[in-house]
Design brief:
By secondary structure, this protein is of the alpha/beta class. The protein contains 20 helices and 25 strands. Strands 1, 2, 3, 4, 5, 18, 23, 24 and 25 form a nine-stranded mixed β-sheet that branches. It has a six-stranded parallel β-sheet with strand order 9-10-11-12-13-17.
């Protein structure tokens, strides 16, 4: 027998199928798994051997909801995702991206991505080369690059609409029959070039940096069915959608029509809002559709979707108060010194919160839903541990106390406000979502919301919180959790060559010191183009990550290997 490239020895193998773990060896050759032994050591020799004794060996994680559309054009590394055992990502979600694009519309797409996904426009202006126009051009550009993981792309509706309709598309005018025909043809071409699917947004929460709604908000039935028919013509591909569901019956009828017309799967963003049980109505509709034979899934998260507040992030609890905002351009230490002045503090606390901050103020529940971010982070915090509760216990004014905590540690403290999935101050809703037959893990938004959110670590939370650490309710068994983020996510986007540790599958895997696995404390780093700042979050406990048989990360640090490539489905 010829020599193997890699043998992983003696690990606790959780293979991604949901089956119970077993101890064994894995042999790799040519980027694929060629041998698995649970009865004794693999006898072959190998160019490299990795000891996994006592550690979990799991498939590489597949994250189907990221926004690395820009980052993938200027960086080889898809962090923060790469720090959390991710070996495949899918981008182009929520209907936003950078192709197709006409030279005259670069700024428009930047404004859209900056507004919807909180990626600094200055970084995008500096980092994007725009060496493409059509979506196939964009795919060809990515195909020439090397990464620390595999990358799949979807064609975004907003970029497509603006490309075909120009300003009419940006202004949300109805598409003509000719517009629809052209968008349909371009979608067919994108699928032929290897796109994984088509995405769109129908939520008012998605706006440009100028405050304008996303171009796709009011797209009519004929337009969306045109895109659906393109996937039918292509004979493959998935759809990803986000909606406010203000008219639940009408909106869901439209989405069902798209699935029926295309014959293709659809995932729909699903989270608990301020209404504790509204999400159950949407999931009920998804379940009914699924039971009728339509492939529809709710795309869900394992923890709250929340905002990080601080002096180093985009937002702070006192954002929009004039005496606070006027200091925003000062260096951190100088700002801290000024804010520490009692007179300045009193002035800020006496000012009203501006209207632009009213929604977030409501999410903070007048200060009741603000916690100090700990290391490791606690994403199911108890109300009695909130800064508001601590202040009341000490007989202090809550906002004064929050102000003081914000300035501690030289102004580097991060405060956490969970909103979606936390209406009842616990994560019981997330457990129900994770275990439902018609859901799939997603919504991490890796590469996006870089100054307010760092949810690419969803994956580490999924397996640690639910598989080991939860104290405020029931957990979930580890084989089920691993399956959720490997086989299930891979199959949701029709990737059948990865997601499980089985002979013939792609050799993407993680060796994990599970007892010591933790998400780290988020921190601000200035590594975007033009020195732009973003939140970064690493993890402890990922001993080794392997992509296509090559070691990409060891003990959290990157190697020189860049085996990741563009995923092209044809």
């Amino acid at each position: 027998m010829s020599q193997l490239d890699l043998i992983v020895r003696g690990g606790r193998i959780i293979d991604g199928t949901g089956a119970a773990e077993f101890t064994g060896d894995i042999g790799v050759r040519g980027g694929k798994i060629v041998e698995i032994s649970d009865t004794g050591p693999i006898n072959s020799s190998a160019k490299r051997e990795l000891s996994a004794e006592g550690a979990i060996v799991a498939p590489g994680f597949v994250d189907i909801h990221t926004h690395y559309d820009g980052q993938a054009t200027w960086s080889n590394r898809m962090s923060p995702s790469s720090h959390h055992g991710v070996t495949s990502v899918v981008m182009g979600n929520c209907g936003v991206g950078f192709a197709p694009v006409r030279p005259t519309d670069h700024d428009l797409l930047i404004e859209l991505m900056e507004g919807v996904e909180d990626i600094p426009g200055v970084a995008l202006n500096e980092g994007l080369s725009w060496d493409w126009e059509s979506f196939p051009d964009y795919m060809d550009y990515l195909a020439k690059r090397q990464f620390d993981m595999d990358i799949g792309a979807q064609i975004p509706h907003a970029a497509l609409r603006v490309y075909v309709m120009g300003q009419r598309g940006a202004d949300r005018e109805p598409a003509t029959a000719e517009d629809i025909a052209q968008m349909r043809q371009l979608t067919v071409e994108a699928m032929a070039a290897g796109a994984l699917g088509f995405t769109s947004s129908r939520t008012l929460n998605h706006r440009t940096s100028r405050g304008e709604p996303t171009p796709t908000l009011q797209a009519e039935v004929d337009e969306l069915l045109g895109m659906a028919s393109a996937l039918k013509t292509a004979g493959r591909g998935v759809m990803e959608m986000i909606s406010d569901f203000e008219d639940l019956d009408g909106e869901f009828s439209l989405l069902k029509q798209m699935v029926d017309a295309s014959g293709r799967p659809m995932s729909i963003s699903l989270a608990q809002g301020l209404s504790p049980h509204g999400w159950r109505k949407v999931l009920g509709k998804i379940e009914q559709a699924s039971d009728s034979g339509l492939v529809m899934r709710g795309q869900v998260a394992p923890r709250p979707i929340g905002i990080l507040l601080g002096l180093t992030t985009t937002l702070a609890p006192f954002t929009t108060r004039p005496s606070f905002t006027e200091l925003s351009r000062l260096p951190l230490m100088e700002r801290c010194g000024t804010l520490a002045d009692p007179a300045r503090k009193a002035k800020i606390l006496a000012e009203e919160t501006g209207r632009g901050f009213a929604r977030l103020y409501n999410l903070m529940d007048e200060g009741r839903k603000i916690w100090l971010m700990s290391d490791p982070p606690n994403y199911e915090p108890d109300p009695k541990d909130s800064l508001y509760a601590q202040a009341m216990q000490r007989g202090l004014d809550p906002w004064s106390y929050i102000y003081d905590v914000l300035l501690q540690n030289n102004g580097t403290n991060l405060l956490y406000t969970p909103f979606a999935n936390y209406a009842e101050d616990n994560l019981d809703c997330c457990r129900d979502m994770i275990l439902h037959k018609d859901t799939v893990m997603g919504l991490g938004d890796g590469g996006a919301h870089v100054g307010t959110i760092c949810d690419a670590s969803f994956i580490t939370t999924l397996i640690t919180h639910w598989g080991r650490d939860r104290t405020r309710g029931e957990g979930i068994d580890l084989p089920t959790l691993i399956k959720c983020q490997t086989q299930d996510t891979a199959r949701a986007v029709e990737l059948y060559d990865r997601g499980t540790l089985q002979v013939g599958m792609k050799a993407d895997l993680n060796i994990i010191d599970f007892d010591n696995l933790h998400a780290g404390l988020p921190e601000i780093v200035n590594d975007l183009p033009a020195g732009g700042a973003r939140l970064q979050q690493k993890a402890r406990g990922y001993e080794t990550t392997v992509v296509s048989g090559e070691v990409t990360y060891e003990c959290g640090e990157a190697t020189t290997a860049l085996p990741g490539r563009l995923i092209r489905k044809t």
